Amino acid sequence: MPMTARRDLETFPNPQPERDYTIRMRIPEFTCLCPKTGQPDFATLHLEYVPDRDCVELKSLKLYIWSYRDEGAFHEKVTHAILNDLVAATQPRFMRLIGEFNVRGGIYTTVIAEHRAHGWTPPQPVTLP
């Protein structure tokens, strides 16, 4: 069954909405195009979020990420665009997207973008002996 890239993100109900917990995803095959040269850019995306009512569905996320393969985008712009779309789809309590881009012109670029829902404060970390 062939799959095509799509920009719509599907969600499913959070199975534990009463609890703060973190979902972490590593997306090692992100590609887009350099808007100056048209050459491919490669990155690993690191997504972590504390869901509220909805979680992002993985197949739709994969197809969404694929949709950037032929699009020219600066690292900063594409990282914020992806975060904005994920926040719009899931309305999380907290979300962080890290774009760790491969070397271009001898420079590695990492872009970190965050969203925090109004009024949400993270729980205190537990330190064990």
Describe the structure.
- By secondary structure, the chain is an alpha+beta fold.
- The chain has a single domain (21-116), classed as GTP Cyclohydrolase I, domain 2, CATH 3.30.1130.10.
- It is 19% helix and 38% strand.
- It contains 2 helices and 6 strands.
- It has a 4-stranded antiparallel beta sheet with strand order 2-3-5-6, covered by helices on one side. The chain has a two-stranded antiparallel ribbon with strand order 1-4.
- The longest helix has 16 residues, at 75-90.
- The radius of gyration is 16 Å and the shape is globular.
- The termini are far apart.
Task: Please describe the topology of this protein.
Blueprint: E1 11-13, E2 23-33, E3 40-50, E4 54-56, H1 58-66, H2 75-90, E5 94-104, E6 107-116
Antiparallel strand pairs: 1-4, 2-3, 3-5, 5-6
Summarize the structure.
The chain is an alpha+beta fold.
